[in-house]
Write the structure tokens for this entry.
Amino acid sequence: MKAHRSPALPLLAALLCVVCGPFAGRGNVAAAQAAGAANPAVPDRIFTNGKVLTVDEEFSVAEAIAVAGERVLAVGSDAEILTLADPATETIDLAGRTVVPGRMPHHLHFARAARDWYRHVRLDGVTSRDAALALIAERASVLPDGEWVLVIGGWNFAQFGADALPFTLAELDRTLPDPALYIQEGYRRGFANSAALRAGGIGTGSSYDGPGTLVRDAAGNPTGELVGPAMNLVTAAIPDVPAEVWNASLDAAIADMHGMGLTGVYDVGGNGVTPQYYDALRRAADAGDLTMRVFYSLNGQHGIGSSADEIVAALSSRTPDLTGLRFAQFGWGETTYPPMRATPWQISAEELANYEAIALTAAEHGWQLHEHSLRDVKVRTLLDVFEAVNAVRPIGDLRWTIAHTNGMSPESIERANALGAVFAAHSSSRLATPEAIARGASTPPFRTIHESGGTWGLGSDATTVASPNPFHNIGWVVSGLSPAGEPILSETVPREAALTAHTRTNAWLLLREDDLGSIEAGKLADFVVLDRDYMSVPEDEIKDLRAVMTVVGGAVVWMATERETSE
Ligand SMILES: [Zn+2]
């Protein structure tokens, strides 16, 4: 399997002491030995001297992990685990560092982001305007001539503190006179430099009557700002990605996301996504090169068609992959039936009957549904349908998922719990400002769901509406603070609950709890070594935690460089 930045192994030796050789000990070693008394499995690799947050049911903490092949052989004290070693066993001294299970966001628009990730600059968590512009110039300096530079979501101006005025055309042209630069703030507005405006056919005399707004200065000249649908004037001009670049771009996305501590993702399609987007993934998986576990949902973007009949036919003729652990498809969403995405929320009786027929077919064929919902009025309708289907074919074993959960009421949470439905709660409103919250922007009721005993996973809905970095999202749910440090979330939860939601419970949502989600004997060895201790850093610094090493299936797939660990 391919490893990203593995040439850093000497650094690994510097960071974490690597030695080989036999040792003696007890504890769940006994279980391991009892399990294989005749021939106890011998670990290829032992990680010792760590603070291993196993995130098992007891949220127990261990010192060491023994790995055999792709799986965890045992966890326990250093003394216990080292008894399993033989002369060929590699031992890695974690130097007291904290280890957490790999994070697997349960709703991330991965395939869409990976397609042209190489063009993207991420400003997630960047709190200096100058640093942001410097990152943009740096990216341009490494791209081929004429290649666009893009910043698509996951940030907002508030994170620049007092320096939060919109980008000006002069500023962007100074940063990047050429090639084209396009910066988007969520789905709200975009900023283009002159080269991007030219590519979009926008000049001083251009007329544009909407939809959305092409912002102009007092002299009537475009300022580079495009609001709402006017963004399409420039995004439509972004060149397509040459097929031969897709896999390189995918590799870049995977390396960066491993660097954030991600070991798996659940991709839910997204606007503009087509079946071609999954070709690069399939090629990498078939070549045994896919280090990221990629699960993905089916939806209209897979060439299935979007009429109720076409969806029912596809549900009946395909089978969910309930066992694949590298590249697998087992559910539908985030919009199984397009009319269920209406904004404002309204649906005809016929469309509702269609959705009920689709949902029943999904249940009868063992499919998980993962449905987009940003308002309680929509959730109530979803639950009406889920209850109707449940009366015919109980759905408790299918883990039907309500995604986003913003503004969900306690009554809807109770109804969902009664059905065995689960919650994919997201951090997209982490980028909301206190003013927006005061105006009624809704956030997920994390604490209410948690205290109701509901099964909830934590994710982001990245990469446009949120940061894909799990520490940003976990830090927000624990501290309630925006990237600028303003209190915007009252429904916070304890750090154990937040970490569990982003690891073991997400594995549950992905129907892979026997193999993933915690560091326990028998499970796949997917974990992340951190630069500081998740359990003791101040809550408002959880967002700044970094991975120094990421392990997938027992293999080191990502290492921090010297520069990254020193920053
Ligand atoms: Zn989404």
Summary: Residues 107, 268, 334, 461 surround zinc ion (CB under 6 Å). The domain at 117-235 is CATH 3.10.310.70 (Diaminopimelate Epimerase; Chain A, domain 1). Residues 243-259 form the longest helix (17 residues).
